[in-house]
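Page 42, continued from yesterday. The earlier attempt failed because a stray header line got pasted into the input along with the sequence. Redoing it now with the clean sequence only.
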Amino acid sequence: MKKFLIAFNIVFVLSFSAVSLKAQDGSSYKSGIGLRVGGGYYDIIAASFKTFVTDPGAIEINIGFRPYGYTGYNWVNLSGSVSYQHHFPIGSVEGLKWFVGGGLTAFNTFSKYEDYKGFGLGVFPTGGADYKFGNIPLNVSADFRPTIALIKPYSYYSSFYAGNVGISARYTF
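This time it went through. Structure tokens are written below.
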């Protein structure tokens, strides 16, 4: 697990330094990179990259993990997800938008126990709120992603998980 965390941090730092760090002025932004903390089956913490492909439309990519364990059984999920989000302004609050969309997640569960390992694939609708601070290059968002498993990694895995709620913070550029 230590090797994975070290490798994850190296990849995150390199990807962060590989992009232009020019901050946007005001309450709009083109792209952002940071972290998403959530309550999903497949990830609890993820690197998050969000970029607008049109004025209202954005793509968000997350690469994350979630460790599990109880009474001597330990396993970890590694995941990747991508979603499309269509944004709408909220009233007169500059920088605040709500969004709806959907996405796909793929994850793999690693364990030395056959009952707790395998590949999973799921789809999810998504919705939430997104806020870009006007004076600093920071974006925060909260989202809800109820996930439907198309492929379950093991038999105990639920086919539907409604508790996937997350909070993201990203450096914008």
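Notes: Residues 55 and 87 are 8 Å apart (CA to CA).
Reminder to self: strip header lines before submitting.
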